[in-house]
Design a protein that fits this description.
- The chain contains 10 helices and 14 strands.
- It has 2 domains: 1-32; 37-328, (Glycosyl)asparaginase (Glutamine Phosphoribosylpyrophosphate, subunit 1, domain 1, 4-Layer Sandwich), CATH 3.60.20.30.
- The protein has 330 residues and is of the alpha+beta class.
- It has an 8-stranded mixed β-sheet.
- Aspartic acid binds at residues 187-189, 207, 209-210, 219-221, 240-243.
Length: 330
């Protein structure tokens, strides 16, 4: 049965939920859809095209969504010319590149790292936290020690050219050493959502956060429910943009819950964006974009301002870049 036929049947027509007894704390629910459903991967911004290509190397061969999203966003973390993801990213106000990432799978397992320095693949450290500890999130020095203990190599950051840019920036922004401000100069997290041919959903999110942020600042990207949320019975969502605004409405969780209530992915993203708009008096520079993918492989996005786009790869159309809808001009 191909995806189009499946649409007509609806989610409940073919999805089965298996529940088994469990030990305390063990996750028990997993939902399986029609195996001929087809796979889809979506990810934020145009760097998502290259990331989707690598994710598709897993999905296209019948691999798991979890493996696909990890492999996909590692592509962006590997790109040292990217100034908003990975160790090529811009540093904080004091010159430290601190990385945030999280990952979540179809069993609602999740892992995250925040304020991680000198490690090239925070997303894989997040997955290691998920798979090898009873915890969800490790931060700072503890996260770094954990990564080193698990054999992740130490890398030098910031890169020479990034450090040079930061020095220039510092000269021109003396005021940020006097009072905390949000810098709107650089962003573009990669958030990726995928559904595999077994109907399982997973997501990943990784960023260096806002360029020249206040030291110690952690954004939405490593926070489960804010930068990313997956519920295998319903769908998945991720966010990019001003993390503080996303955290305030538990953005990605909100989008998934709206889909649970019957909204399409685009409608759910739009309603979450409207909630952000309603809660902020001053929208100047406040860009947030949400992406969502539901259990039927339908996807959509919406942003506060126009200019947010995302990459889509699926069985039917290959890869394309889509402009998210928005009601406001940047
Ligand atoms: N959401 C990220 C943060 O606040 C940045 C971005 O995606 O633009 O750190």
């Amino acid at each position: 049965m191909k995806r189009r036929t499946f649409f007509k049947l609806g989610v409940l027509g073919t999805a089965l939920t298996f529940v088994k007894p469990s030990k305390a704390g063990e996750l028990i629910s997993s939902t399986v859809s029609d195996p001929n459903f087809g796979s889809v991967v979506i990810s934020t911004w145009d760097h998502g095209l290259a990331a989707n290509d690598n994710a598709w190397k897993v999905l296209g061969k019948g691999g798991a969504a979890l493996d696909a999203v990890e492999k996909g966003v590692r592509t962006t973390e590997n790109d040292l010319s990217n100034r908003s993801v990975g160790i090529g990213g811009r540093p904080d106000r004091d010159g430290h590149v601190t990385l945030d990432a999280c990952i979540m799978d179809e069993r609602s397992r999740c892992g995250a790292v925040a304020y991680l320095e000198g490690i090239k693949h925070p997303i894989s450290v997040a997955r290691t936290v998920m798979e090898n500890t009873p915890h969800v999130m490790l931060v700072g020095a503890g996260a770094k020690q954990f990564a080193l203990d698990y054999g992740f190599p130490k890398v030098k950051s910031p890169l020479k050219e990034v450090k040079q840019d930061w020095k220039e920036w510092k000269k021109e922004h003396k005021e940020v050493f006097e009072k905390p401000v949000i810098n709107h100069e650089n962003h573009d997290t990669i958030g990726m959502l995928a559904i595999d041919d077994k109907g399982n959903l997973s997501g990943a999110c990784t960023t260096s956060g806002w360029g020249y942020k206040l030291p110690g600042r952690v954004g939405d990207s490593p926070i489960i429910g804010a930068g990313l949320f997956v519920d295998n019975e319903v769908g998945a969502a991720c966010a990019t943009g001003l993390g503080e605004a996303v955290i305030r409405i538990a953005g990605s969780h909100t989008v998934v819950e709206l889909m649970r209530q019957g909204k399409s992915p685009e409608e759910a993203c739009k309603l979450a964006v409207e909630r952000i708009i309603a809660k902020h008096e001053d929208l100047e520079g406040l860009q947030v974009g949400f992406l969502a993918l539901n259990k039927r492989g339908e996807y959509g996005g919406y942003s506060v301002y126009n200019g947010f786009n995302y990459a889509v790869t699926d069985d039917n159309t290959g890869s394309k870049l889509v402009d998210a809808k928005s009601d406001r001009n940047w």
